[in-house]
Design goal:
Layout: H1 3-20, H2 35-43, H3 50-62, E1 63-70, E2 73-80, E3 90-96, E4 101-108, H4 120-136, E5 143-149, H5 150-155, E6 166-170, E7 175-181, E8 193-194
Parallel strand pairs: 1-8, 4-5
Antiparallel strand pairs: 1-2, 2-3, 3-4, 5-7, 6-7
Helix pairs in contact: 1-2, 3-4
Length: 202
């Protein structure tokens, strides 16, 4: 089965699911990921868009990314390849196994402060989510979850064409909860190296 055929199968299953699984009380079609959908997605993961691959290449040409792991929590750091100085403020992703979510706990890459870095924050988010998904072996029935201010959603997350972020709930102040389906991609993330554990015995 080709990647195109797999995508067609996913779309067909999604259409059948939405047509036959409407909630009788509300008439709303729940977002259900069946085993067939998950299998089609995982056996034939699509390739990332040409745009995001181009921006990831630009990101990795200028910056190195490392990570440390603490159970279901991954913390990343971005450093300038030339100056070796840290660039990022806080980058933390976590796996909520109960909710089947990949949570973007903190995303402050600091890339926007540098000239010529347009779209690199989007590339960074995409790359980190794919890396975390591979580390946690996430399946297609997982979702990406985050909280942010409404203006941040409007100016950044809502414009990311390689995701399907949408606001699910308004919370305190002008903050919102945001989700997007998780989709594994054919993407090499091995360039993100794990930092040695400080207290690991030789």
């Amino acid at each position: 089965m080709t990647g195109t055929e797999a995508l067609a199968k996913v779309n067909k299953i999604l259409g059948e699911t939405n047509a036959t699984s409407k909630d009788q009380a509300t008439g709303a079609a729940p977002a259900v990921i069946t085993r067939d959908i998950a299998a089609a997605m995982e056996l034939h993961p699509p390739t990332a868009s040409a745009f995001i691959r181009e921006k990831i290449a630009a990101l990795l040409e200028r910056y190195a990314i490392t990570y440390s792991a603490d159970g279901g929590r991954l913390e990343y750091e971005i450093t300038d390849r030339v100056s070796r100085e840290p660039v990022s403020f806080a980058l933390v992703l976590a796996h909520n196994t109960f909710a089947r979510q990949l949570q973007v706990c903190k995303f402050y890459p600091g890339l926007g402060r540098k000239p010529g870095n347009r779209y690199l924050s989007a590339a960074c988010l995409f790359l980190l989510i794919q890396h975390a998904g591979q580390q946690f072996q996430l399946t297609a029935d997982h979702r990406i979850f985050l909280q942010c201010r409404a203006p941040v959603f409007n100016d950044f997350y809502s414009r990311l064409g390689d995701f399907s972020f949408r606001v699910t709930r308004a919370i305190q102040g002008d903050n919102v909860e945001v989700t997007s389906p998780y989709q594994a991609m054919r993407l090499d993330t091995s360039m993100i190296q794990r930092t040695p554990d400080l207290f690991t015995m030789p």
